[in-house]
Amino acid sequence: MLDLYHLNKRILDAVVLDKDLSQEWSIQLSMSQLSNLYLIVHVFSSSRRDQETIFREEFNTIDSRHGQSKEQQLIKLAEDAAANGRKLLEARISNPNLTSGNHLSLKLALGDWFQWLKRPVAAKVYYRQAHQLWMASSDPKLRTLFNAPVELPNND
């Protein structure tokens, strides 16, 4: 899981630097990385950490270049996930060439992220911004985004 997270980060960093690649690549890789964060938080949240031993001892004793075991690195990622997820998506939103559809989708993703993290106040801010973009849109594809609820990943 940790290797997947770091690989996705390296690819995303390279794609962002390559101006010839479309913003779709950057957005899709960001959403993939957000999926990695969902999984990391789900497995390594403090409430779950205390309930079970997740890895064999060898996994916990291997030192990395960061001076931490892989489990410690994953726990740290889980602890910082809210900010990391927000920064990840806000970096894509800051692109001045972002289409209105992608802007709306990223705002919705931020709202979903914070709702999933059980932070409804922060979620509401992003949902409100997404709704304003939705109201201003004349794109028929975007007009269906608020028609039905969408299930978030399970975090129980």
Features:
single chain; 156 residues; mainly alpha; 8 helices; globular
Task: Describe the SSE topology.
Blueprint: H1 2-17, H2 23-44, H3 46-49, H4 57-61, H5 70-79, H6 81-93, H7 100-116, H8 120-136
Given helix and strand content, the structural type is: mainly alpha
Order of helices and strands: HHHHHHHH
User: Cα distance, first to last residue?
Assistant: 19 Å
What's the average pLDDT? 83
Q: How many β-strand runs?
A: 0
Q: Give the overall shape, derived from the CA principal axes.
A: globular
Share of helix, binned: 55-70%
**Roughly how many Å is the radius of gyration?**
17 Å
Query: How is the biggest beta sheet arranged?
Result: none
Strand content: under 5%
Give me the number of helical elements: 8
Unreliable sequence segments: none
